[in-house]
Write a structure and sequence with these properties.
The protein contains three helices and twelve strands. By secondary structure, it is mainly beta. The longest helix is centred in the middle third of the chain and has 7 residues.
């Protein structure tokens, strides 16, 4: 399974640098100079990192062979991915990687089926995107008070939603 560790954004300047929306806890490792990064779509890569730097909290990367603003623009929207086997498991029993949560069945504490996790959003607070049959997706904050149990081996996640969340 491939995991997204970054998404290429707009060009920065005229020398071929791009902004990268970081989606990894370890950008120093994943985006090290000289590293080869697999892309989605695969036809745009792999890309080799020539240089990287932080500018006002934004990661800027220059890739080998990408020159000028036009070359950088062609990469916009490209996902930078790794194989999930490359991710070290956490020692913390309450820490999970997105790929471990996506696909889990969601049920309430009373055993009522809710749906399935289709994505995990990281917007200041982690949010679980739950696809529900015949209804809009639900966004559930991934906090212990609302998600008392994550059973990876059983393939399920238990939620205790307050009135009106679902």
């Amino acid at each position: 399974m491939q995991l997204v560790v970054g998404r290429i954004g707009r060009p920065h300047g005229v020398r071929g640098e791009v902004t990268v929306e970081v989606r990894t806890d370890d950008p120093e490792l994943r985006f090290a100079e000289g590293a080869s990064v697999v892309t989605d779509p695969a036809s745009r890569g792999p890309l080799v990192i020539e240089s990287r730097r932080w500018h006002k909290g934004v990661l800027l990367i220059a890739f080998e062979g990408v020159h000028g603003r036009d070359g950088a623009e062609e990469l916009r929207g490209t996902m930078l991915v790794i194989d999930s086997a490359e991710v070290e498991p956490s020692d913390d029993p309450d820490e999970f990687h997105d790929h471990q949560l996506v696909g889990l069945a969601v049920e309430t504490v009373s055993g009522e089926p809710v749906g399935e996790i289709t994505d995990v959003l990281h917007h200041g607070q982690d949010l679980l995107v739950v696809r529900r049959c015949g209804q809009d997706d639900a966004l559930i904050p991934f906090v212990k008070a609302l998600v008392p149990e994550v059973d990876l081996t059983g393939g399920r996640l238990v939620v205790d939603p307050p009135e009106g969340l679902l």
